[in-house]
Design goal:
By secondary structure, this protein is of the alpha+beta class. Helices cover 70% and strands 10% of the residues. The chain is elongated.
Length: 422
């Protein structure tokens, strides 16, 4: 009986161990899955100081809107005064009252200030979105730099491996007198050059990985995969130019113009009379004449007659500020169009170049195979063979670089048009 119980416990323990092992294996595989561009971009947003600064600016603008809204609401306060007269009479007066003041009309300046604050709030919100787009461009640039560096290192290692294989083959042929020592020296020279290039490529890769890790906050042992907007979807530049007015910086500029326009109304309100409603409730009043008066209501009217031309100057200043914002908006639109056209041309050129290089790789590979076959038959020299091999590898390196550039330029194009999912 005890043996059966022991056997059951052993089986149960074994089952839990297997389940635990499977769970840990799945967790480890999930945690070590290659990161995509969207993954590192989301990680970068969590630690970006630039985005945190924009959030604080949004909060500041929001509070300014609250302050301007408060200008439309009544003000309630307790006012107290203690008056002590000369020493002969030794009289003192203590007055205390609850005062309420409600603005009624001030040339609609308060309403204009509220609309301006609302436009500023919208403008700052779009500036925050523009900061996210700029961060996306930085992350995409660093992301594809790592991929390009990894691909370059892999190609160099492959070319180095082929060179070493050729070197071993030459050493055997040299022993039987079928190759020249100069060919071996040429191969050894190329091997040394490739080793130097590999060292440089390792440094470039390490710098690219460090930059991406610092920018996004991912661990230093991260793995990434080629991802991002599809660079091979057929597009026309008009599709991206049509998104120009929806770019966050352009929208922010539009609201900045609205805010500047309302600033003129704020300044112009200084020409109008001011009307306020006031009410007082007296808590304590030491005056024989007013002792029985507990409350009063009042309307206050102020009519500006002459202010030294200050108000007119403020109106002209606000008008110039509006013109400045309009010119800045035009400048932003022009820059946005320039960014989109430049990014589109770079993307289209890299895609077209990639197609041509793909064909060149196929031809270079066929040429290398033919040269290898002819070399074994003694129909071509070793120089022709090594030239064909180097041409193939260099063409592959150019093709891989251009392929990464196609993905990178497409991501830059999407960001330039503001089409990135934020």
């Amino acid at each position: 009986m005890s043996c059966r119980m022991t056997l059951r416990k052993t089986k149960a323990h074994f089952s839990f161990s297997v389940l635990g092992f499977l769970f840990l294996s799945q967790w480890a595989s999930a945690s070590s899955a290659p990161l995509t561009l969207q993954d590192v971009f989301q990680s970068a947003q969590k630690q970006s100081e630039a985005l945190q600064i924009q959030q604080t600016r949004e909060a500041q603008v929001q509070e300014k809107w609250v302050q301007n809204r408060g200008m439309l609401l009544p003000t309630v306060q307790v006012l107290s005064s203690y008056q002590y007269q000369d020493l002969k009479s030794q009289a003192s007066l203590l007055n205390s009252r609850v005062n309420m003041t409600q603005p009624i009309f001030h040339g609609f300046g308060e309403w204009a200030a509220l609309r301006a604050a609302d436009a500023d709030r919208e403008a700052q919100g779009y500036l925050s979105k523009q900061a996210v787009l700029m961060l996306y461009q930085q992350v995409a640039q660093a992301f594809f730099s790592v991929l390009a560096a990894e691909k370059e290192l892999k190609n160099l290692e492959e070319l180095l491996k082929l060179t070493q294989q050729r070197q071993a083959e030459l050493q055997q042929r040299l022993k039987v007198g079928r190759s020249r020592k100069g060919d071996l020296l040429a191969t050894q020279t190329q091997e040394a050059q490739l080793m130097a290039q590999k060292t440089g490529a390792l440094g470039d890769l390490e710098r690219a990985r460090t930059q991406l890790a610092m920018l996004t906050g991912v661990s230093s042992d991260f793995q990434i995969s080629l991802s991002g907007p599809n660079p091979y979807s057929v597009s026309r530049v008009e599709e991206f130019l049509g998104q120009l007015e929806e770019r966050p910086d352009v929208l922010s500029g539009k609201f900045a113009v609205i805010s500047a326009e309302e600033s003129q109304s704020i300044a112009r309100a200084g020409h109008y009379p001011g009307l306020d409603f006031g009410a007082n409730y007296y808590l304590k009043r030491q005056s024989a004449f007013w002792q029985n008066v507990k409350w009063d209501l009042a309307l206050s009217l102020s009519i500006p007659l002459f202010q030294g031309g200050v108000v007119s100057s403020k109106v002209r200043e606000a008008a110039e500020r509006q013109r400045e914002k309009e010119w800045m908006l035009a400048q932003t639109r022009r820059q946005a169009e320039r960014d989109i056209r430049s990014a589109f041309q770079a993307w289209k050129a890299s895609v077209d170049q990639e197609k041509n290089l793909k064909q060149a790789v196929d031809l270079a590979e066929r040429n290398y195979q033919e040269q290898t076959h002819d070399y074994r038959l003694g129909l071509v020299t070793y120089l022709e063979l090594i030239t064909a091999m180097n041409t193939l590898q260099e063409t592959r390196r150019a093709y891989d670089r251009t392929q990464i550039q196609s993905w990178n330029h497409r991501a830059m194009l999407e960001a330039a048009a503001g089409k990135v999912s934020l």
